[in-house]
Each structure stands twice: as structure tokens, then as C-alpha cells.
Write a structure and sequence with these properties.
Blueprint: E1 4-10, E2 15-17, E3 22-30, E4 37-43, E5 60-70, E6 75-87, E7 109-111, E8 114-118, E9 126-130, E10 133-135
Parallel strand pairs: 4-6
Antiparallel strand pairs: 1-3, 1-5, 2-3, 3-4, 5-6, 7-10, 8-9
């Protein structure tokens, strides 16, 4: 059976694919045990009634469909049959409302890998993966 069920974060704004009228975006899922992320192209059929433009960057969504090829390059993607929002994206931080204290760490420790939203409110808004790193509190 060629079925795909994914829960992940929308990493890019929806975009038009070729002249066929298909719409798509990139969905990010986390690998087991936090060993990185996977990026999935998610596209609709040109005749689909799904509104992919309703999904915002950073929104958690459920996608169900099948693996298939699309456009002239014949790239593999998840062809969507159903998709819906699970959790809306977090609000962007308001500039100027930062706390007066610092949260500097006094000891060296491992920082987990995580997703970061960049370019908020612009056409280049997307999610990027920040690699795990060793962080030291001393400079």
C-alpha cells in the first residue's frame, strides 16, 4: 500500500508548482530520538479542493496521502488527500518587551537540536534546524 501519514511543522509558505496549478509546501518531521529532521515535499493534485494557503509557517499539521511524482523534474513528494491543522503557530515575539534579567548559563552543557523560525512576516519565512551543540557559560 502506498499511504503516507505525517504529523509535522509547516516549514515554508505554500507555493505554486509549475503550470499545472498544483500547490505545495515543505513539511518538517523530527526523527526518532531527536536524531535530526526530515523534510517532505507536500503537494496537492491540480484538481484538489484543499486550500494549502490556509496553513501558516510553524503550524502543526496532519497530512495523509500517497507518495508520487510531480512536475517536469519528476521529483518524489507526498500527494495530499487530506490535511488539517493540529496546532496554530506560536505568536511572534514583540520587540521591546524583553526581560531585564539575563539567562546566562554558568556551566557547560549540551543544547538540544531544535527548529527555529526565521524571516517572520516576510516572503522568506521558514523553519530551519539548529544543530545540537555544546554551550559554555564562560566567555
Amino acid at each position: 500500500m502506498n499511504q503516507v501519514h505525517l504529523i509535522g511543522l509547516v516549514a515554508t509558505r505554500s507555493y505554486s508548482i509549475g503550470e499545472s496549478g498544483a500547490v505545495g509546501f515543505v513539511l518538517i518531521t523530527e526523527r526518532a530520538r531527536g536524531l535530526g529532521i526530515d523534510r517532505h515535499r507536500v503537494v496537492t493534485e491540480p484538481s484538489s479542493l484543499l486550500d494549502m494557503n490556509a496553513f501558516a509557517v510553524g503550524e502543526s499539521v496532519y497530512v495523509q496521502g500517497r507518495l508520487g511524482r510531480f512536475d517536469d523534474t519528476r521529483r518524489v513528494a507526498v500527494i495530499v488527500a487530506e490535511a488539517w491543522s493540529i496546532l496554530s503557530p506560536l505568536a511572534a515575539p514583540v520587540p521591546g518587551l524583553s526581560p531585564s534579567r539575563t539567562h546566562a548559563s554558568p556551566v557547560e552543557h549540551q543544547r538540544r537540536g531544535h527548529l527555529r523560525r526565521v524571516g517572520i512576516g516576510t516572503l522568506r519565512e521558514r523553519l530551519v534546524w539548529v544543530q545540537p551543540a555544546t554551550v559554555s557559560g564562560r566567555r
